[in-house]
């Protein structure tokens, strides 16, 4: 099953984030709690951890892209 | 125990602190992963866990939202913290409370609330109950230093000092109220805490904190009265996951805080002292990381509450009170409502030794400014107490008393003065059952003279006030219009497990009326049908019952009016009014309160929206009320703006065509 990673919510005030680094390539395995990308808000610069085990299928964002919170970041094929 | 024989257990403290920190790290990850919506960190406040080594089963903890480590020290499982974070059905609060809003009745933790410092007066109430019962327990009231500028804090400290209560106020001073530096704002900095012993302690060092807390607690247990433990520490993380301290703190300030991290410094001390090796620490950290991750992940799979669960625990079952147990024979053929209230309280206090009464001027010889409590402090010594002139104190202390033992009866001298108490009533009394999923309840009876139609009163001694209370879920609101109903409603309220507001029309304190020998309990939500009729349903309560009766006397005796005294406004007798309107097709509500967002408007809305009534209505329902204006001092204002018999009669004529 494919699951979509989405940009996390940062409080009531943060509307958009910058995707600063993608730490995995499509096809790579990712494991629960492992950082998969970094983002930056006007205040925070932060790694975001994988919410489950799986295999990265594709990125929906590129480094430097500005996207709203809740925006799709990646498709992950979840381990059965 | 007085705590003097307790020795600091550094390893236990460190492990608890480390578990708490790991829970915070895990919770932040879950927020980033989109699995949890919100997180509040205790990082930097973990040394408070040491209090768990100094407290026992007789004590009660009124927690601050950064007391995760203390909760763990008191035995709360990590999974319960996870349930709180994730709003799970198995959380003690069934997913109703936010993270950081701890509550655990079994472990002596009162249910926390968001309005800061609002748990301090309840802590005083609980401590008062402990002191009266001689349990030897202490109420630990923990709060942030920024919240110490709330009036609630000052009132709580004053009350604890006044009554020499076993309360330990633990102020967790992290020097920030979200982004506002507090070092020059706190009452300690302002030099305003002369009347209470304050012990300042470096709470970054668990041993130092332990020794200071042990000494202070020991003094409280020995009867020395309340004390403040002022804890210097750091908030290492942002205020919550919705905040980022980098927006308002320079990087070097944040770095300096982390360099004082109590977990790092404690660990270094234990390693330097040979108690632990570096390997032990690494092993411990690894085990904790795994255990915490597993606990949170297990809880993720637990069921969420079903939305319908939210409708439970608003109120307990309707009380089923027996016939009023008269405290003695009475012969007086006619009573005022004031006399009836006094008699009802006497009967209740004679029957229930657990009841207490608290309010301004309630003790003899005054016995209340209206004499509602006359003779009670004499007949029931040690159970009836004058309060300071501070309504938040009255309500907040009552919440603490009632939730931990004695049912509390409190007199608010005038409903007009409930303003300062409203925050306690709205936030504590009315929510305690719901927010703790029934774990804690708050059987308080608030009674307050209300209403106008009296001269010399002015706008702050004439208000009705009922609509404001009726808007709050978790309260019952009643307004008697006769002496006998006052007895019956007090009696029922004395058997309820939830807060009841009894509003007493003060105009009736001077009106004598016959009182029956047998005084039945008056159930909540049951209107009295005072007259049967076919042409119009007339609904009133409190003072307007007499106004309506006088209006009917002005009309042709042939007019057929179905007259109801609601008596109980929340809940209200909708079935009786619906059935009546079904017969008459006409509805007139007469109320003393102003119209906007009022009980009268609610009744019109509910009846009009009901299909059965809508189909039988012959004309639009009508509300006669005070317009949205205050009651002025001059008699002209009273006559002009409170519903008068002539105006009611005119409305009835207009609606029915009667003469």
Describe, in plain words, how this protein is organized in 3D:
The complex is a heterodimer of chains A (80) and B (659). Chain A is mainly β and 80 residues long. Chain A has a single domain, classed as OB fold (Dihydrolipoamide Acetyltransferase, E2P) (Beta Barrel). Chain A has strands at 2-6, 16-22, 29-30, 35-40, 45-49, 54-59, 66-68, 72-78. Chain A is globular. Chain A starts with a strand and ends with a strand. Chain B is built from 22 helices and 21 strands. In chain B, the strands form five sheets. Chain B has a seven-stranded mixed sheet, sandwiched between helices. Chain B folds into three domains: 10-23 and 44-302, Rossmann fold, CATH 3.40.50; 334-514, Thiamin diphosphate (ThDP)-binding fold, Pyr/PP domains (Rossmann fold, 3-Layer(aba) Sandwich); 528-656, Rossmann fold. Chain B is of the alpha/beta class and 659 residues long. The chains are: A mainly beta (80), B alpha/beta (659). The A-B interface holds A 6, 8-13, 33, 41-44, 46, 48-51 and B 29, 31-35, 37, 240-244, 246-247, 293.
């Amino acid at each position: 099953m494919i699951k979509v990673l989405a940009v996390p919510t940062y409080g009531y005030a943060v509307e958009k984030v910058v995707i600063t680094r993608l730490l995995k390539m499509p096809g790579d395995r990712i494991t629960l709690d492992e950082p998969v990308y970094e983002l930056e808000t006007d205040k925070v610069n932060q790694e975001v951890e994988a919410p489950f085990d799986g295999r990265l299928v594709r990125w929906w964002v590129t480094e430097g892209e500005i996207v709203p919170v809740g925006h799709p970041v990646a498709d992950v094929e979840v381990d059965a | 125990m007085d705590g003097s024989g307790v020795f600091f257990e550094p390893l236990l403290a460190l492990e608890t602190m480390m578990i708490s920190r790991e829970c915070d790290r895990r919770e932040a990850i879950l927020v980033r992963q989109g699995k949890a919506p919100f997180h509040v960190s205790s990082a930097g406040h973990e040394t408070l866990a040491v209090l768990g080594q100094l407290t026992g089963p007789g004590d009660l903890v009124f927690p601050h939202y950064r007391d995760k480590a203390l909760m763990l020290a008191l035995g709360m499982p990590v999974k319960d913290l996870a349930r709180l974070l994730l709003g799970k059905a198995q959380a003690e609060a069934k997913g109703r409370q936010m993270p950081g809003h701890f509550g655990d009745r079994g472990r002596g933790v009162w249910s926390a609330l968001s309005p800061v410092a609002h748990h301090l007066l309840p802590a005083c109430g609980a401590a008062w109950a402990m002191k009266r019962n001689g349990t030897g327990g202490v109420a630990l009231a923990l709060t942030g230093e920024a919240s110490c500028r709330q009036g609630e804090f000052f009132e709580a400290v004053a009350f604890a000092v006044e009554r020499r209560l076993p309360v330990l106020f633990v102020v967790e001073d992290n020097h920030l109220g979200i982004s506002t530096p507090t070092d020059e704002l706190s009452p300690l900095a302002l030099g305003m805490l002369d009347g209470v012993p304050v012990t300042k302690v470096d709470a970054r060092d668990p041993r130092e904190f332990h020794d200071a807390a042990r000494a202070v607690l020991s003094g409280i247990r020995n009867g020395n009265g309340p004390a403040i433990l002022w804890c210097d520490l750091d908030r290492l993380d942002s205020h919550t996951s919705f905040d980022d301290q980098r927006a308002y703190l320079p990087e070097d300030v944040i770095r300096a805080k982390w360099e004082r991290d109590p977990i790092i410094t404690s660990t270094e001390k234990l390693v330097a002292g040979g108690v632990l090796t570096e390997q032990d620490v690494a092993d411990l950290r690894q085990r904790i990381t795994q255990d915490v991750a597993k606990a949170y992940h297990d809880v993720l799979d637990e069921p969420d509450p079903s939305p319908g669960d939210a409708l439970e625990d608003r109120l307990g079952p309707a009380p089923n009170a027996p016939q009023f147990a008269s405290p003695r024979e009475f012969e007086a053929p006619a009573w005022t409502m004031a006399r009836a209230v006094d008699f009802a309280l006497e009967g209740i206090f004679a029957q229930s030794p657990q009841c207490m009464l608290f309010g301004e001027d309630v003790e003899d010889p005054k016995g209340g400014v209206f004499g509602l409590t006359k003779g009670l402090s004499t007949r029931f010594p040690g159970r009836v107490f004058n309060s300071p002139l501070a309504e938040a104190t009255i309500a907040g202390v009552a919440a603490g008393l009632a939730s931990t033992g004695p049912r509390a009866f409190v007199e608010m001298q005038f409903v007009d003065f409930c303003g300062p108490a409203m925050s306690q009533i709205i936030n504590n009394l009315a929510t305690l059952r719901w927010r703790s999923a029934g774990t804690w309840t708050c059987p308080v009876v608030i009674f307050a003279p209300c209403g106008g139609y009296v001269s010399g009163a002015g706008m702050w001694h004439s208000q009705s006030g009922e609509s404001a209370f009726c808007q709050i879920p978790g309260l019952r609101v009643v307004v008697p219009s006769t002496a006998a109903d006052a007895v019956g409603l007090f009696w029922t309220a004395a058997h309820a497990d939830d807060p009841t507001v009894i509003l007493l029309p003060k105009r009736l304190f001077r009106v004598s009326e016959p009182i029956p020998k047998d005084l039945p309990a008056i159930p909540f939500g049951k209107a009295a049908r005072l007259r049967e009729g076919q042409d119009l349903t007339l609904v009133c309560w409190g003072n307007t019952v007499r106004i309506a009766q006088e209006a009917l006397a002005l009309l042709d005796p042939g007019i057929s009016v179905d007259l109801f005294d609601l008596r109980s406004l929340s809940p209200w007798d909708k079935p009786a009014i619906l059935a009546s309107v079904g017969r008459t097709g006409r509805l007139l509500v007469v109320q003393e309160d102003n119209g906007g967002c009022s009980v009268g408007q609610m009744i019109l809305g509910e009846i009009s929206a009901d299909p059965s009534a809508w189909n039988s209505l012959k004309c639009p329902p009508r509300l006669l009320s005070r317009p949205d204006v205050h009651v002025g001092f001059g008699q002209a204002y009273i006559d002009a703006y409170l519903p008068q018999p002539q105006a009611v009669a005119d409305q009835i004529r207009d609606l029915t065509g009667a003469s």
